[in-house]
Each structure stands twice: as structure tokens, then as C-alpha cells.
Design brief:
two-stranded antiparallel sheet, rod-shaped, alpha+beta, binds 3,4-dihydroxyphenylalanine
Length: 339
């Protein structure tokens, strides 16, 4: 009998229980009513009285061994299948991940680019670091010219041979680079960053974006400029907002104009945002001044052209009713995720 108990003990130890099926097989083989342990307890009744002590003790140890192995295996298997159930529970609320979007300025630059590409404009690059020649002189703005005072320039070096390097105050120098490298017809837009030494306020920052436009060919007229800008305004702001063109002055265009869009807030009635005029200015424009053509080697007797430059932040403030220009760069997710 003791030998039999030893054999079954080795069988119990060798039995691999690692899933619900093998657990049930283990139970049937050793612990059920028809299992091996029950048979042994039956046999125990016939054991000689003198042997009952040691055999009974061995038998109890065997039972504890089998029951212990069963209980701990059961717990492990149930815990691991409970884990699987958790993954499979599709009724639990999901985890949310915030998906980023393109910044509003990037979106606007892409929108504007597409609008102009549809009517034949190509994108031209530009440089954020320029010198006085490209930012001012070539654009018909010599250093005695009062309009230099209109733009407070960040100079990069106030002494030495590089003293005329600066952060461009406008995207207009891109026009000069394009015309120096290409003969008419020229039809480009050039988006990018500009810098001015301005006091920071709700309406101005020292860094902002512009999109420059230039079209030069034989016989380009002011009427085409107006048509192009009207087309742009309708595509970008929608058909309902009215626009108007006002005479203005820029050194590099003659005649010059500024385009206004009906105030988004008061719809033209007059309010604090539009300083009670009903209009908000979005761009400067005009016919390219003959002096600019001379500077880049184009013959002003043969070619005419128009140019325009618009402020992006300003334009977006109008389109979305953003009250403070600083909101574009605060990176507040509550603002950014609205676009
Ligand atoms: N560069 C001008 C500015 O920053 C905007 C501008 C006006 C650009 C007229 C032009 C133009 O190309 O023709 O205020």
C-alpha cells in the first residue's frame, strides 16, 4: 500500500496543469469520487490494524498534496483568464487619444496657396534674413525715404561690413529675387515670416506671416489686380463678406491700394474692432512701380505688373473672429483644437 501511495505521489507531481482542460483532467484522475485517491481510501479499510497509523498518515499527506496542487493551479488559471476577459470586454469605455491638427497659420498658408495655384500662380521661396538692398532699396525705398519709418526694422549688426543685414520686414523682397532670376511672364506668390520691432499688443507681434503676390507680363492692368483680389476674397472669406479697394501709398507700387473686408463682428455697421469704420484692412497692393522694374533689369516700357502683400494673422483674425493676435502663439490647446 505504501508503495502504491509513493507511485501516485510521483504521478501527481509530474502531472502538468496549465489550462482549464488539464485542471479538469487532474481533478477527475485524482480527486473525484471515482479518482485514484478515493480508491486508496477504499483500500485503506482493508489495511492491517498494525499498519493503519503510517498508511493513514501517508494517505492524508497525499490527499493534501493533490488538493493543494489543484487549488493553486485553479487560482492561477482563473486569474489569467480573467485578464483575457478584460481585454475582450468591448463594453468598457475606450481610451481617448488627442489627435493633433495642423496649426491654424499652416492651414491658412496652405489654403491661400491652393486658391492662387488654381489661377496659375506658383510658389516662390524667400529669405528671412535679407539686406537693405532687397528689403528696401530695390523696392524703391532709399534710406532717406520716409516710408522706411513705417516699418521698425531689426538690424542684425549695427557695425562693420555686415551692418546692413536685417530680418525682413515684409515678404516683398521675394519679388526682387524672383525677377532677378526670371524673365516675364512671372506669376508667383511667396508666403513666409516677417519681423518688425513692434510693441506687442492685441493687434501686433514682432513676428508675423505675409503672403506676397506678383504678376508681370505685357499689358497687365489694374482691372486684373482687382479681379484677382476679389476672387481671392470670395474663396477665402466666403461670398457674403463685402470687400472694397482704397487708394493708398507704397514705394514699390504706383498707383497703390489697400483692400478692406467688411468687419466680421458688426457686418459693416461699425464697432470697436473696426474702429467704427465697418471695414478691416487685409492687404496692400498696386501696379509695380517702373523704378522697381529698372532695378531688376525689366523694361518698364514693355512690361507692366501688379503686386500685393497680405498679413495672415490679421486675415485669420477676421475670418475666425480671433480677438487677440497673441492667441496664435500661446499654444493653448483649447484654442488650437478649434481649427
Ligand atoms: N509689403 C507691404 C507691407 O508689408 C504690403 C504690400 C503692399 C505688398 C503693396 C505688395 C504691394 O506687394 O504691392 O505693408
Amino acid at each position: 500500500m505504501l508503495e502504491k501511495i509513493e507511485n501516485i505521489k510521483s504521478e501527481i507531481n509530474a502531472f502538468v496543469v496549465n489550462n482549464p482542460d488539464t485542471l479538469e483532467q487532474f481533478r477527475l484522475k485524482f480527486l473525484s469520487r471515482k479518482g485514484l485517491l478515493n480508491d486508496l481510501f477504499e483500500d485503506f479499510k482493508n489495511v492491517d490494524k498494525s499498519q493503519k497509523g503510517p498508511v493513514g498518515k501517508a494517505l492524508n499527506e497525499l490527499k493534501n498534496l493533490a488538493q493543494g496542487k489543484f487549488d493553486s493551479a485553479k487560482e492561477i488559471i482563473e486569474n489569467s483568464s480573467a485578464g483575457e476577459n478584460k481585454i475582450d470586454d468591448y463594453t468598457l469605455p475606450g481610451r481617448t487619444y488627442n489627435i493633433g491638427t495642423k496649426h491654424l497659420i499652416t492651414q491658412a498658408l496652405e489654403d491661400i496657396t491652393k486658391i492662387f495655384e488654381r489661377i496659375g500662380f506658383k510658389v516662390a521661396g524667400g529669405f528671412e534674413i535679407e539686406n537693405e538692398y532687397y528689403n528696401f532699396d530695390a523696392l524703391n525705398t532709399p534710406d532717406y525715404h520716409p516710408s522706411r519709418d513705417m516699418q521698425d526694422t531689426f538690424y542684425l549688426n549695427s557695425e562693420g561690413k555686415d551692418k546692413n543685414y536685417l530680418l525682413r520686414t515684409q515678404t516683398s523682397p521675394a519679388q526682387i529675387h524672383v525677377m532677378q532670376n526670371q524673365q516675364p511672364p512671372v506669376r508667383i506668390i511667396s508666403p513666409g515670416k516677417c519681423y518688425r520691432n513692434e510693441a506687442i499688443s492685441a493687434r501686433s507681434l514682432s513676428m508675423f506671416h505675409q503672403v506676397e503676390g506678383l504678376y508681370v507680363d505685357k499689358g497687365v492692368t489694374f482691372r486684373e489686380l482687382k479681379g484677382t483680389l476679389d476672387y481671392f476674397a470670395k474663396e477665402f472669406f466666403g461670398k457674403d463678406l463685402k470687400t472694397r479697394l482704397r487708394p493708398s501709398f507704397f514705394p514699390f507700387t504706383e498707383p497703390s491700394g489697400e483692400m478692406d473686408v467688411e468687419c466680421y463682428l458688426c457686418k459693416g455697421k461699425g464697432c470697436r474692432i473696426c474702429k467704427y469704420t465697418g471695414w478691416l484692412e487685409i492687404l496692400g497692393c498696386g501696379m509695380v512701380d517702373p523704378n522697381v522694374f529698372v532695378n531688376v533689369g525689366y523694361d518698364p516700357e514693355i512690361y507692366t505688373g501688379y503686386a500685393f502683400g497680405m498679413g495672415i494673422e490679421r486675415t485669420l483674425m477676421i475670418r475666425h473672429g480671433v480677438p487677440d493676435i497673441r492667441m496664435f502663439y500661446e499654444n493653448d490647446i483649447r484654442f488650437l483644437k478649434q481649427f
